[in-house]
Amino acid sequence: MTQLSWQQRDAELLWHPYSSLTAPDPMRLVRGASGVRLELDDGAGGTVEAIDAMSSWWCMIHGYRNPVLDAAVKNQVDDFSHVMFGGLTHEPAIRLAERLVEITPAPLRHVFFADSGSVSIEVAIKIALQYQVARGNSGRNRMLTVRGGYHGDTFAPMSVCDPVNGMHSLFTGTLKEQVFGPRPPAGLDRAEDDPELQAWIAGITELAEKHADEIAGIIIEPVLQGTGGMYPYSPVCLRVLRELADRHGFLLILDEIATGFGRIGTLFASEYAGIDPDILCVGKAITGGYLTLAAMLCTTEVAHTVSNGPGGALMHGPTFMANPLACTVALASIELLLSQDWAARVASISAGLSAGLARAAELPVVKDVRVIGAVGVVQLDRPVDVPKVTAAALRRGVWVRPFRDLVYTMPPYISTDDDIATIGTAITAAVEEAG
């Protein structure tokens, strides 16, 4: 009997994200990883190396097998790997919470740990609803957001993702109907008096006023919408949303799961606008990609209002909340990031991506090329042929995972200038060959 390959065994058993079980995409078997490189099975008994231009879905900012993070996990295992967080606490969680409060916007003073970014959004929405009930506004049970957003794959986050062009349109009619405003006009550098921006401000203001008695909070990805299209917009929009929240008694929730920890050039994207949220969600890069963890931070006013309201507690409690291994490696990852001139490194990556992707803008199939911080995006005028583009980039030593009409990269911060140049060349050539 012929022995099945690992990929064949995978195809018989495993359902991968955003994929069909009956017509799956090709799978590459990872044999190892170090620094910014993956070692992939070549199908002939050997391996090939590829730069991970995705940072394993944006989280592996320090690269693979980082000695500092490896040591943090190993040391914590010697103490204990997990304890429940109900009735018990531990130093890793306390230290991490203290550090998060130190580095996030000043009004945020309280931390709730969650299993994943999506779950942190669930918690944030739940808090907004409990907050309004505690204030006697039980009719305020909807969220205000904008088109083009993406906040996760569980049900409450799905309800605030783009309802038409998002990945969850199949669930229309099942999800809570939220209040959606227009997508902000594209462009990070739009002036406040820009006509399109002024029209957006007027529209979102009118919508907030019309639904003020129904809205519990506003939720948005600040400055850069991620999975909704790698779409940058003006920080002026955030200032407008902060003003609307203050005027009408909404809570402002910023989803910084993708943008947090330096990805777009500031430690947190809210710094672009100079505003503070009532609730902040962070995840992905928080552990340097080692373990799943997210955090919801909120103000004292929010925390005390919920705690003193009906129920007397936040009604949420994941089994693996504040897992000690995850908290330990998260703290080590944050300290490693802040011990370096991370801003200069992100700026260097940004410059390298701008140079490396410039030629892609000249290709006939390319609609737009944009770079913000350590994010580079090539947008096509048609859906990407994902298997072909992936294979074409891989032949040039780079791993990418396109989606919709986008071929993009969010490389690890430890990528060298040569690595970034290789990524730019590979993406451009792959689009030219197979886009």
Automatic annotation (TrEMBL):
<feature type="binding site">
    <location>
        <position position="255"/>
    </location>
    <ligand>
        <name>pyridoxal 5'-phosphate</name>
    </ligand>
</feature>
<dbReference type="InterPro" id="IPR005815">
    <property type="entry name" value="BioA"/>
</dbReference>
<feature type="modified residue" description="N6-(pyridoxal phosphate)lysine">
    <location>
        <position position="284"/>
    </location>
</feature>
<feature type="binding site">
    <location>
        <position position="284"/>
    </location>
    <ligand>
        <name>substrate</name>
    </ligand>
</feature>
<feature type="binding site">
    <location>
        <position position="401"/>
    </location>
    <ligand>
        <name>substrate</name>
    </ligand>
</feature>
<keyword id="KW-0808">Transferase</keyword>
<feature type="site" description="Participates in the substrate recognition with KAPA and in a stacking interaction with the adenine ring of SAM">
    <location>
        <position position="18"/>
    </location>
</feature>
<dbReference type="InterPro" id="IPR015424">
    <property type="entry name" value="PyrdxlP-dep_Trfase"/>
</dbReference>
<keyword id="KW-0949">S-adenosyl-L-methionine</keyword>
<comment type="pathway">
    <text>Cofactor biosynthesis; biotin biosynthesis; 7,8-diaminononanoate from 8-amino-7-oxononanoate (SAM route): step 1/1.</text>
</comment>
<keyword id="KW-0663">Pyridoxal phosphate</keyword>
<dbReference type="GO" id="GO:0004015">
    <property type="term" value="F:adenosylmethionine-8-amino-7-oxononanoate transaminase activity"/>
</dbReference>
<comment type="subunit">
    <text>Homodimer.</text>
</comment>
<dbReference type="Pfam" id="PF00202">
    <property type="entry name" value="Aminotran_3"/>
</dbReference>
<keyword id="KW-0093">Biotin biosynthesis</keyword>
<dbReference type="InterPro" id="IPR015421">
    <property type="entry name" value="PyrdxlP-dep_Trfase_major"/>
</dbReference>
<protein>
    <recommendedName>
        <fullName>Adenosylmethionine-8-amino-7-oxononanoate aminotransferase</fullName>
        <ecNumber>2.6.1.62</ecNumber>
    </recommendedName>
</protein>
<dbReference type="GO" id="GO:0005737">
    <property type="term" value="C:cytoplasm"/>
</dbReference>
<feature type="binding site">
    <location>
        <position position="57"/>
    </location>
    <ligand>
        <name>substrate</name>
    </ligand>
</feature>
<keyword id="KW-0032">Aminotransferase</keyword>
<comment type="similarity">
    <text>Belongs to the class-III pyridoxal-phosphate-dependent aminotransferase family. BioA subfamily.</text>
</comment>
<dbReference type="InterPro" id="IPR005814">
    <property type="entry name" value="Aminotrans_3"/>
</dbReference>
<feature type="binding site">
    <location>
        <begin position="117"/>
        <end position="118"/>
    </location>
    <ligand>
        <name>pyridoxal 5'-phosphate</name>
    </ligand>
</feature>
<dbReference type="GO" id="GO:0009102">
    <property type="term" value="P:biotin biosynthetic process"/>
</dbReference>
<feature type="binding site">
    <location>
        <begin position="318"/>
        <end position="319"/>
    </location>
    <ligand>
        <name>pyridoxal 5'-phosphate</name>
    </ligand>
</feature>
<feature type="binding site">
    <location>
        <position position="150"/>
    </location>
    <ligand>
        <name>substrate</name>
    </ligand>
</feature>
<dbReference type="InterPro" id="IPR049704">
    <property type="entry name" value="Aminotrans_3_PPA_site"/>
</dbReference>
<dbReference type="InterPro" id="IPR015422">
    <property type="entry name" value="PyrdxlP-dep_Trfase_small"/>
</dbReference>
<comment type="function">
    <text>Catalyzes the transfer of the alpha-amino group from S-adenosyl-L-methionine (SAM) to 7-keto-8-aminopelargonic acid (KAPA) to form 7,8-diaminopelargonic acid (DAPA). It is the only aminotransferase known to utilize SAM as an amino donor.</text>
</comment>
<feature type="binding site">
    <location>
        <position position="317"/>
    </location>
    <ligand>
        <name>substrate</name>
    </ligand>
</feature>
<dbReference type="GO" id="GO:0030170">
    <property type="term" value="F:pyridoxal phosphate binding"/>
</dbReference>
<keyword id="KW-0963">Cytoplasm</keyword>
